[in-house]
Amino acid sequence: MAPYRPLVAIVVSHEHPVGMAMHLRFIPSLDTTALMLREGLLLRHTPEGAELWRGAAYCHAVVLPLVFQVITRNAQLQSCTQWPVERPLRYVSVTGQEQLQAETLAGSGASRRPLLSVGIDHRPAPDGACATYRIALASNRRA
Predict the structure, then answer these.
(1) Neighbour-count burial for 62-94, b at 16+ CB within 10 Å, e otherwise
(2) Is 94 helix (H, G, I), strand (E, B) or coil?
(3) Phi, psi torsion values for 18, nearest 5 degrees
(4) How far, CA to CA in Å, does 117 sit from each of 1, 32, 38, 60, 92?
(5) pTM for the complete prediction?
(6) What 3-state DSSP class applies to 35?
(7) pLDDT digits (tens, 9 = 90+) for 39-73
(8) Do residues 5 and 128 make contact, with C-beta atoms less than 8 angstroms apart?
(9) In whole angstroms, what separates CA 79 from the centre of its chain?
(10) How far is CA 134 from the centre of its chain?
(11) Element spanning 36, H or E
């Protein structure tokens, strides 16, 4: 089997108290799942988020539209987070920026069930380097 290398990393940070794990799970949309199967990409969960890995033979330079619903097993995470916009919300990529930007989906009929969603239009680097996208969550000081 050919070696796999990281293509995309999504890192979520939180000001939560030390020792409180976020227990995040990234669930790809149907379109993202189909793209992953077609391109031979693997999803790997990490303590800080998730990574997409590619096979050594992967050499596509096309934009990869990636969409994930993010859930958590930590029931306290939702109440101890100061959300930057009204929930439901999603974090989206902005060209040339590593930090993902929050936008509200309130009034769109979107479900409040997932903790958040992530939408990234990933453009692979010519040298194949892993791109890191970041989400920074703040603590709700009242929680």
Answers:
(1) eebebbbbbebebeebeebbebeeebbbbbbbe
(2) coil
(3) -55, 135
(4) 33, 13, 22, 25, 9
(5) 0.87
(6) helix
(7) 889 999 999 999 999 887 777 768 899 999 999 88
(8) yes
(9) 20
(10) 8
(11) helix 30-39
